[in-house]
Write a structure and sequence with these properties.
The complex is a heterotrimer of chains A (238), B (287) and C (337). With 287 residues, chain B is mainly α. Chain B has 11 helices and 2 strands, in the order H-H-H-H-E-E-H-H-H-H-H-H-H. A two-stranded antiparallel sheet of chain B has the order 1-2. By secondary structure, chain C is an all-alpha fold. In chain C, the strands form 2 sheets. Chain C has a two-stranded antiparallel sheet with strand order 1-2. In chain C, strands 3-4 form a two-stranded antiparallel ribbon. The chains are: A alpha/beta (238), B mainly alpha (287), C mainly alpha (337).
């Protein structure tokens, strides 16, 4: 069996004084989609922050494509291929939509280490809604457009692993469909995804595997196909 | 006519004020840093020009062109190794560190260059430009034009270049900027360097158009601070306009209260703004 | 009182005795040095009260230096007051003016407050410099001050310093003091627990103003003249900030240590103010980066010594909180004696 693209082993991370992630382990194979399920406060965001380098985990191992990357800072890790679409989107308000994309693209252009699969043009293809808004300020676009932009921004840095914290939170059903269609297209291209999705149906439908976090530990893990909605719900609520 | 001339004169001074404020604005906009040594960096530039470069026989324009990158280097280095490490730990450390740098700079200049007044002997000083019946000193026009040009360059830098986008992104949201493969520390160092470089330009103008002492650094800092307060923090253009408005306030004070009340009027207007309209007189716009 | 507490009281008492007995062991040289130390330490204590406890970093304290000195000068020269009543008046005037000034400047935060208070001081400097009543830019000479016995001045200085330290210690051990330390540590949390942050800060500001004015009155009597550019100079705040940072912010003994360093450096580096300031500036930058709690902090960390303990330990009955639980409400504190 080929080695997984991402292997997490006994990760321990804190959010302030609180130990939010207490010994989490899982693997993601290249091209797979892993759903992370859990209620608020279960440790999902802290986990993601640790994986993308925004936050230094206290203990445990993170192995990305064979390299140990625990403690590598975010700006470095992005170059190596892990990109995060953060919770709350975090669009740069004083940059236009196009500039938001360019900011990420600029940095990749400086030291291209991988083939370009997601130039800005491709992002505009995936999310046509952004084309008309290209010149608008980041703070002037709708929530749905912000999520599309946030995903586009992450793609433009040419990741091999895309982390998405809260894919559909606060979005209308129509927008959610657009987003998931785009994610499906990206996935068909071979992208590896780890995502948080509050809609458990969607989580199960879109993912190959899932883990369910509760109070910082993994309560349930395995192939999405083989888990019923009830089993997941039980694990979700502890 | 006399009034119009005085007004024009004053507004042109505002161009220099605006230039002085730009550096402080860059530092505060990017790092929330009130850089208490900014004024002294300006004066450092002036001293470097007048006591080192010009006496060495370097032609003035070339010398001016040397001061700017030299100051960039000073600002960049200070940020990277001294000021940067003091950030993120609360209000006090950066204030003490930048104030300490200010004190050290002023007193090194005092020791090295003595407390004598300095200026560049330039024929600009007494020349005047006459246009349509109005005469203004050439130096004031030069101040204004250079200040405006500097603003233009900065706006282009911020608006059109990759570095500019990265700087704006870092000021907006440092954490998310890291997700764009941007190293905030490098951005801060670049911003500090650019701010110091604009200080270098201001220093060259200071040297060419007025007299200065080591203690002028403190005066420059207060001008910069007041310009930023008046213009608001929304944009560099706002800061530059703030310079014009401050000069106007001082002018009105001199006109109606007497020449020795120019500075006080400026201070009082600034205090009034700080208390009653802290966002500044100009509306917040994108840089 | 614990043994440590008794030892501390003994040391403090011994220091006081040595100071009081100065005429017997020291001459005018020691006296001058100690007066220098006293008013610098007083200035530093007051700056520390603001920055180390109330979270107010001020580069405008010189406004109260000038106001205190000028009140003394005007009181003596224009209104015929005696020197000592004028001292008291200086404190009162500064305290009264501190209320509106504080109320206005408190709207500013952080670096803006620091430079904003500097601007206020500048306004005073410029206005006093063009005010005929106080001698414009040339200032005033205080004739009455020439008649003051130097040893009397010495005892006033020492008394002032001891009184100020005692006041600070007493305040910090009291309720407002607890509030001050809560504000220093976490202002928003303190506010949510019902601390009247604004009022406590204003109280600290007023006390600091009065203390600074008294220290300034001392200097003015000693000089004995006053000029606007010197009295309202940024150098007063610069020196105070350096002393506090080097000595140790937020401790009672910090400003004393800092003032001692300041005075010793000044003696060693002689009349050349520039070198003195370069060294002091450089030291404060290094201390701020490397040992931010200053000398007092180093002494506490390495040796566990504290001359004026005002830190509270929770009572032994407090149980350790489980991870993630919300913080407990503050309990009645016990002093670490």
């Amino acid at each position: 069996m080929t080695q997984p693209l991402l292997r997490v082993d006994g990760l321990v991370a804190s959010y302030g004084q609180l130990q939010a992630v207490r010994g989490v382990s899982f693997e993601v194979g290249a091209g797979q989609a892993l759903a992370v399920i859990g209620e608020n406060g279960a440790g999902k965001t802290t986990l993601f922050h640790s994986l993308c380098g925004l936050h230094g985990p206290a203990a445990g191992d993170v192995v990305f494509d064979g390299e140990h990357v625990r403690g590598v800072p975010a700006h470095d890790l992005v170059r190596r291929g892990i990109a995060l679409v953060p919770e709350g989107r975090r669009i740069f308000p004083s940059l236009t939509v196009d500039e938001n994309l360019r900011v990420a693209e600029d940095q990749h252009r400086r030291r291209p280490s991988r083939a370009r699969r997601f130039p800005r043009a491709r992002v505009y293809e995936l999310f046509p809604d952004l084309v008309a808004a290209a010149r608008r300020g980041g703070h002037q676009i709708s929530g749905g457009q912000q999520q599309m932009l946030a995903i586009g921004r992450a793609l433009v840095s040419e990741p091999r692993l895309l982390l998405l914290d809260e894919v559909s939170l606060g979005l209308s059903p129509a927008v959610v469909t657009i987003v998931y269609d785009a994610l499906a297209a990206i996935r068909a291209d071979g992208m590896t995804l780890v995502f948080v999705e509050q809609d458990v149906h969607r989580s199960l439908a879109f993912s190959d595997h899932l883990i369910c976090l509760h109070k910082g530990t993994v309560r349930l893990a395995g192939a999405s196909r083989s888990h019923s909605l009830d089993a997941v719900r039980r694990a979700y609520f502890g | 006519m006399q009034l119009v001339e005085t007004l024009l004169n004053g507004l042109l001074v505002g161009g220099l004020y605006g230039l002085i404020g730009l550096g402080l604005s860059i530092n505060f906009g990017t790092m929330r840093l009130v850089h208490l040594a900014h004024g002294d960096l300006i004066v450092l530039g002036a001293y470097f020009l007048v006591t080192v470069l010009v006496p060495a026989g370097i032609p003035p324009l070339v010398a001016a062109a040397i001061v700017v990158p030299a100051l960039f280097f000073v600002g960049w280095t200070l940020q990277r190794f001294v000021i940067g490490p003091s950030l993120g730990r609360g209000v006090l450390p950066p204030l003490i560190v930048t104030f300490g740098i200010s004190t050290v700079l002023q007193n090194i200049l005092l020791l090295g260059a003595t407390a004598d007044a300095r200026t560049l002997q330039s024929s600009l000083a007494s020349a005047g430009i006459t246009l349509g019946g109005l005469t203004v000193p050439t130096v004031r026009v030069v101040d204004f034009v250079v200040g405006l040009a500097c603003l233009g360059v900065l706006l282009l830098l911020l608006g059109r270049t990759a570095l500019g986008r990265a700087l704006r992104a870092t000021s907006d949201d440092r954490e998310t900027a890291r997700l764009m493969a941007i190293d905030p520390r490098k951005m801060y160092a670049a911003a500090a360097g650019i701010a110091a470089a604009t200080g270098g330009v201001a220093g060259v103008l200071l040297a060419a158009t007025s007299t200065f002492y080591p203690s002028t650094g403190s005066e420059m800092l207060l001008v910069a601070f007041e310009v930023v307060v008046v213009g608001g923090l929304g944009s560099l253009t706002g800061t530059f306009l703030g310079g014009l408005l401050l000069a106007l306030a001082q002018l009105l004070g001199a006109r109606f209260l007497g020449p020795s009340y120019a500075l006080v009027t400026g201070h009082l207007v600034v205090l009034g703004i700080l208390v009653f309209r802290p966002q500044g007189l100009l509306p917040r716009t994108a840089p | 009182m614990t043994r440590a507490g008794r030892r501390r009281t003994a040391i403090a008492a011994a220091l006081v005795v040595v100071l009081v007995a100065c005429p017997t062991w020291g001459g005018s040289g020691a006296r001058t040095l100690l007066i220098l130390f006293a008013y610098n330490a007083a200035l530093a204590q007051m700056w520390n009260l603001l920055a180390g406890y109330a979270g107010l970093v001020s580069f405008g304290q010189q406004m109260f230096v000038g106001l205190g000195g000028y009140t003394l000068a005007v009181g003596c020269e224009r209104f015929g007051l005696g020197v000592w009543p004028a001292f008291g008046l200086a404190a009162v005037v500064a305290a009264v003016l501190a209320v509106p000034i504080g109320a206005l400047t408190f709207r500013l935060k952080g670096g803006y407050f620091a430079v904003g208070s500097w601007v206020v001081a500048e306004v005073f400097r410029l206005l006093f410099g063009t005010w005929g009543f106080v001698g414009n830019a040339s200032g005033m000479f205080i004739r009455r001050a020439r008649d003051v016995d130097p040893w009397l001045l010495y005892y006033v200085a020492i008394g002032l310093l001891i009184g100020m330290v005692a006041l600070v210690v007493a305040t910090l051990r009291s309720r407002p003091g607890l509030a001050l330390m809560a504000i220093r540590d976490a202002e928003d949390a303190a506010a949510s627990l019902g601390v009247h942050v604004w009022r406590v800060k204003l109280l600290a500001f007023v006390v600091a103003a009065a203390g600074t004015a008294l220290a300034s009155a001392l200097v003015t009597v000693q000089t004995p003249f006053i000029q606007p550019n010197a009295a309202f100079s940024i150098q007063w705040s610069a020196a105070a900030s350096f002393m506090v940072v080097v000595g140790g912010l937020g401790t009672v003994e910090g400003p004393l240590l800092g003032a001692a360093v300041y005075v010793v450096l000044q003696e060693r580096l002689g009349a050349n103010g520039a070198v003195h300031l370069i060294v002091l500036g450089a030291i404060s930058v290094i201390v701020m980066l490397v040992a931010p709690r200053g000398l007092a902090g180093l002494v506490r960390d390495r040796l566990g010594w504290t001359l004026f303990p005002v830190v509270r330990k929770p009572p032994p009955s407090a149980t350790p909180r489980p991870a993630g639980a919300p913080p407990q409400a503050p309990q009645a504190p016990q002093e670490k004696a």
